[in-house]
Every structure is written in structure tokens, then in C-alpha cells.
Amino acid sequence: APFCSKEVNYGNVSDFLINMIYLLMALYKEQLLFTPNCMKFNLPLPPLSRLVQKAELTRLSHTFLHVPQLHWIVVEDAPQPTPLVTDFLAASGLTYAHLHKLTPKDRKLQEGDPSWLKPRGAEQRNEGLHWLREMGAAAEGKEAAALEEAVVYFADDDNTYSLQLFEEIRYTYRVSVWPVGLVGGMKFERPVVEDGKVVRFHTGWHPNRPFPIDMAGFAVSLRLILTNPQARFDGDAQMGFLESSFLQHLVTMDDLEPKADLCSKVLVWHTRTEKPKMKREDALQKQGLGSDPDVEV
Amino acid sequence: APFCSKEVNYGNVSDFLINMIYLLMALYKEQLLFTPNCMKFNLPLPPLSRLVQKAELTRLSHTFLHVPQLHWIVVEDAPQPTPLVTDFLAASGLTYAHLHKLTPKDRKLQEGDPSWLKPRGAEQRNEGLHWLREMGAAAEGKEAAALEEAVVYFADDDNTYSLQLFEEIRYTYRVSVWPVGLVGGMKFERPVVEDGKVVRFHTGWHPNRPFPIDMAGFAVSLRLILTNPQARFDGDAQMGFLESSFLQHLVTMDDLEPKADLCSKVLVWHTRTEKPKMKREDALQKQGLGSDPDVEV
């Protein structure tokens, strides 16, 4: 591997004995385009794409390229795969599946809706689960045995993942959990562990939700997903209950497996990328001097 | 390199014949802490650090780990190296130099100043140039010859870099230039190339600055920096003139070497990370229920 300049030791993982990680990522943020803030800027954008999308996919892919046995499942909120994402994935060097599932119009945020009104990405994550279950049903022999050991993690396109996180995720028997940094108006949220068991949650909001955990804070064994076909994300869930709507089909709090040194380390951060300002672009476009639309950004 | 799961081909670069890239990064954003917005939130922060700093360094390091022959020069705006950055770099797997240079108080943004009032990172970038020149003066024989071929690039902690960019940078004779995405209120800014030469600049603002180029849009041969010891960043430069203050010691527009397919491809994006909201953290702290300050975020 000539382009990997350093060997980094992330623990005692053998390259030959590691479980597959299915990283399911819903690209649902296109709908942000329809919020009043974007309307105001009158962005010169093609529909169903976001200006920072290629940048975010680029830096995420650099992280994922360091993770052995990773299979990236990308689900676009689009009527068909977009050329930008298709070309990006083909050149990424990663193993991936490229799916798409358009959110029905009545489930989408409408102009003027606050972003928390409807859960986002539920349709796309369910499409990914469907793909995993189809694959599971078709697998036989050694392949089926390997799937028994695989783990599913729900990634997001602007979060930041340490490489150590993936080594923690890899050994998930049912559902593993860990802290998430910079989430929910907090420095971090985390499961509170006593005597090796999760007993409650450190969170700034609704600690009594069934599972007050951000999407970035848990992973699920593929075996559990395959043996519980009813487990899916509820697109009608109240704000903050999307994760619970899925997890309550699979485990109880007592079953949760604390990772990241008994939930004492932050290995993933809920970073968000600013929407770029397009004020000057807009002004120049009006004079016919805008940026060349043929250059992909 | 067992943790590099795929071999990616970024072009016709031989691993044995590549120039060193010195990536100089000024960590100057600590001063944002003193803006009114942060005062309002009353962030529970140690001085001279930012909440997203570790996350940003983490994902940047994943990009840099793919680049052969990279030497990362990190210059903190601090009276001494901070433990967070020191520990992070030691564990990163990268080759680096960790410097520090505190911005004098009269050069720092004060409470209430708009962020564009004073150029940021000038002191730190000059400190990095000083380090390079000391190293250049001390080098002899083969080492000195290798430095002749090396290239210097000024990185930023929230930008997004494609891996292809570094292969373009590597072959810089004097000063190379290319487009930067999502910068200056534009989809992209770029040098305009005619007959292989840069003839003007596509930018939304002051196109007649000597070099209307963002810091992310050029690289300089180390030889040129060593043979022009007067070239430095002017901390008193007007907004938008910091890059020009350095480059005008080194080249004319006629000398610029267009990269990225004659400046037709966007290979770097000026992404920005949102400041995380700490509303609930603040409320919980007042009840003595804040996040454990011993957990590094």
C-alpha cells in the first residue's frame, strides 16, 4: 500500500480475524435546500445536491480508507443515483453499495418548517436495512457465517470519526454504545456505566427516552438485524425518538455493551459543516460572470 | 501497512521519486473564544482551546496519513504547546514539528471586533517560515539537496483536501496555483489560464489585488523561501491582502504555475465547521450536572 505513509497501531486487531463493518449512511440533507435560508440566498444549485457534499464525502472517505473490512452503504434521497455521488464512489477506492430512496413528499420538510419537525434519513436508513436483509437472505455457507459476525453502524456525512472507534465497533455482540462529542447542546452525551453495565444516560434533554442516544453512539450486530426483521426506523417518530424507535425492537438497556473504555473516551464528534455563503456568486451571476457551472465543486 | 485497506492510484507518482511537502498549519483560531458570541454562551472551556479542535485535527490527520513524504508543521497560538495538541500529534502516526507563537495582544482581535479586522495566523505562519529557514541553514550535503526540491503549503484546520491536490503540489518549481471551492462567497475562485499562463483571477472581490488567491490556493518551493529571507506575512495587511503580502516578495503573476488541469478542477474546499451550541451544557453546569471536565473532547 504505497500511499499509506505510516503504520498506525490501533490496538490488538489482526488483519485476518476482523469482522466486517457495514457503514450505513443516509444522504438525506438535500432537503435543506428547501428551507427559507437557502431560498433567501437563491443558490445557483442543481436540485438534490448540496454545495459541501463532495467536500464532505472526500474527507470521510479518507477516514474510511484506513479501516479494514469496511463496506460503505450510501443511500441517496433521490429518485435515482446522482452523477456526483456515483462518480465519487467509483473513484474512492472503497468497497460500497450505492442505493437511493426518495423521501415521499408528505414526509419531507416543507418551506418554513423547522429542521426538527420531521426525523430525517429514516426512509434511507430503512432502505439500507432492507438491502442488508436481502443480502442476508441470499447468503449461504461461509458467506452466511461471516455475516453472523458483521456489525452495522449508522454514519453521518459531517460527523468526525476516530479510527479507534471502528476497532471498538468491530466487537459488538448485540448493541454496543459509547459517548458522542459535541451533540445535543452538550460537550458530550454518554451512557453512564456502573459495574460494567449501562445504568442511565448523561444527556441534556429527555433522559427518560427509551434510548437517549445519538445515531453516532451505537452499533448493532448484523445477526440481530437479520433475526428481527420488524426493526426499522419510524419516520413518524417524535423529535429525538428516531434512534429509540429502532433500538427498542432489538435490546433493553440491560443488554447494552459499553465501549470506549467503559464510555470514558470521546471517539466520535457530531461536527457540522457551515452552509457556505454565496452572496458574491449570486451578484456575479446577475452580471453573467458567475462561476463556470461545468466545474464540479 | 495493514491498516490501509485499499491501494488507491492517484496518478503516476513513484513512491521513490517524490518531493517532500512541508505542510505549515497555523492553529490561530483560539482567539475566536474572545468574541461576544462565545462570551454569551459562557463556554466551560479551558483558555486557548476550541471545542472542535480535536475533531478537526483527527479528520485532517486521516487525510494526511495517505500522503507520502509529508511533514506537518503545526504552530499553535499559545505561550507554550498545549497538552491536547501535543498528545494528539504524538499519537497521530504523522511526521511533524510542533511549534508555538503567541500573537501579541495588540495584534489579536478584541471583544466585539469583526473577524475580518485583523489578518489571522500571520505570526504563526511566520514562525513556521522561521523554522524552515533555520532548518535550511543547518542542512548539508544530501539533506540540503533534498530541501531544494521540497514544497511548502499553508494548510488550514477546517479545509477539505483531496489526495490528488498533494500530487499536484509536489511538482512546484516556484509558485503553483489552482482553484479553491466554496471560498469568498463564491462556488469557487480560480486563476484564469490562457495558453498555459495565468492571465487574471475569477474572484468575487477585489480582482486587482496583487494576488487575489486564498491561502489554500497556492504552494511555494522551499528553495524560493530559503533564497528570499525577506518574504513573510504582514500582520498589518488589509483584509484580503495577507497572501499578497507574502507572494509579492517571491513571484510575478507571469511566473505562476497553473495546476489541477489548468485550473479546471476543484481539489480543495474552504469548508468551515460550525461552532457547536452549548446551551444545555451551560444549563446543566449551573445545576452541577455538567459533562465531566476530565473527559477530553
TrEMBL record, chains A, B:
Cofactor(s) the protein requires to work: Mn(2+)
Binding residue positions for Mn(2+): D158
CDD domains: GlcAT-I (cd00218)
Subcellular location: Endomembrane system; Golgi apparatus membrane
GO aspect biological process, one term: chondroitin sulfate proteoglycan biosynthetic process
Region ranges (Disordered): 277-297
EC number: 2.4.1.135
Topology in membrane: Single-pass type II membrane protein
GO MF assignments: galactosylgalactosylxylosylprotein 3-beta-glucuronosyltransferase activity; metal ion binding
Major localization class: membrane
Site (Interaction with galactose moiety of substrate glycoprotein): E189
Enzymatic reactions: 3-O-(beta-D-galactosyl-(1->3)-beta-D-galactosyl-(1->4)-beta-D-xylosyl)-L-seryl-[protein] + UDP-alpha-D-glucuronate = 3-O-(beta-D-GlcA-(1->3)-beta-D-Gal-(1->3)-beta-D-Gal-(1->4)-beta-D-Xyl)-L-seryl-[protein] + UDP + H(+)
Keywords: Glycoprotein, Golgi apparatus, Manganese, Membrane, Metal-binding, Signal-anchor, Transferase, Transmembrane, Transmembrane helix
Catalytic site positions: E243
A Gene Ontology cellular-component term: Golgi membrane
EC class of the enzyme, as a word: transferase
Associated pathway: Protein modification; protein glycosylation
Xref: PANTHER family: GALACTOSYLGALACTOSYLXYLOSYLPROTEIN 3-BETA-GLUCURONOSYLTRANSFERASE 3, GALACTOSYLGALACTOSYLXYLOSYLPROTEIN 3-BETA-GLUCURONOSYLTRANSFERASE BETA-1,3-GLUCURONYLTRANSFERASE
Family designation: Belongs to the glycosyltransferase 43 family.
Name under which the protein is recorded: Galactosylgalactosylxylosylprotein 3-beta-glucuronosyltransferase
The species this protein was found in: Sinocyclocheilus grahami (Dianchi golden-line fish)
Taxonomic lineage from the root: Eukaryota, Metazoa, Chordata, Craniata, Vertebrata
Protein encoded by which gene: LOC107588211
